[in-house]
Amino acid sequence: MAIEMGVVGTHTVMHSKMSRDVGVDHSNSPKGGAKLGSRIDLHKLRHNVIDPFLYHQYVARRITTMESDELTTGATNPSSSIQVSLRHDRTLLMFVVQSLVRLMRSQLGNNTPKHEDGSIRLNPSKSKLSGCTLRERTVCDIYIYDMIPPNRSEKPSKKRIYYFAGGSWQEPPSPQHYKLCAKMAKEMTDTTISIVSTPLAPNNPAPSAFPMCLKTYRALMSEAKKAGERAILAGDSSGANIALCLVLEALREDSEHQEIDTKQLPHPIAIMAVCASIDLTRKNPDIDEIAPKDPLLTPKTIRETAKAWRGDWDAADRRISPINADISLLAKRNIKVHGITAGHDVLSPDGIMLREKCAKAGVKGEWVHWERQMHCFVLTVPYGLKEAKHAVQWIIDVLNRD
């Protein structure tokens, strides 16, 4: 069923060839209007100009239904170490945004990124920082940017979140990343948010960038321990991939040094992985099944970006594909793994596999799987989308509890 979204009052139209089950019962349509069942052809509805009331009634009912859906969340298997909340709601505005993204998808990422070698020095405009300031420092040749909210006292933080921004391993943090980190910094009053500017492909693929990042990780964990801070690694998409891989590889190295007490080596208390890239082989058959629903990513795109990052490493290498790492090491050190997966994201099948692997290994964590949401939908929070605001608040609440 072709869906064509329009605002009949102004004849503003957005086109999308997606097939969608709207899932709303409009059996109480006004007399004389079309009776709308659980599936509705918006193409026909848009052209019902003589009865605009019918269209606006649809919109009102759609929003009301989604409001009630927000309450129908559920946790799977209360006895599991991983608690999963399921959400199915999607607002009309998010649907419009997804449709726009799909229309623009062919124009996104056409240019090959060009960056200098090594860690990228960041210089965002003040407007992107929501009143916060960035304090720059370097740790093992990697630029670190501490997000300082306005009127924040100089007292030591209890927690430190090191944030790894996504961008296909090839782009620095976007304006949306700065806005997200600024929001977290303002609301998490006992926590400092630090953005890590990792070296980027194609100049610095994983074989050269990952060892640099691992060295910096060790230094940052030692730094946090000396400061009495509880450290958390967080990231989205490719950034979440790096965060997971750093912790898992460091734990693997520790496990091979039996001559020292590895329990004394510092590691984070938790990882927050949002729409993470988990398996760079991209062989999961569910990827192609979800592809028609994904408005942003395609199987071709994620395979190309994975190839750019892995360099001459095998795609299954545990240092770039955390699904192949020893997940049980996280449980042994009591490191929690939290995460978000989205139903209309081709990366979600691998993310769900990691979540299930964590549960099997006894790793603790809280997860949300949100159907009908696109890859990294949390980054739409600067635009006021309800789903993004709820997801970001969930992230803040979970990390505040750690």
Automatic annotation (TrEMBL):
Signal sequence bounds: none
InterPro entries reported for this sequence: AB_hydrolase_3, AB_hydrolase_fold, GDXG_lipolytic_enzyme
Keywords of this entry: Hydrolase
Pfam families: Abhydrolase_3 (PF07859)
Hydrolase listed as a keyword: yes
Top-rank taxon, per record: Eukaryota
Name of the protein: Alpha/beta hydrolase fold-3 domain-containing protein
Species whose genome carries this gene: Cochliobolus sativus (strain ND90Pr / ATCC 201652)
Biological classification of the source: Eukaryota, Fungi, Dikarya, Ascomycota, Pezizomycotina
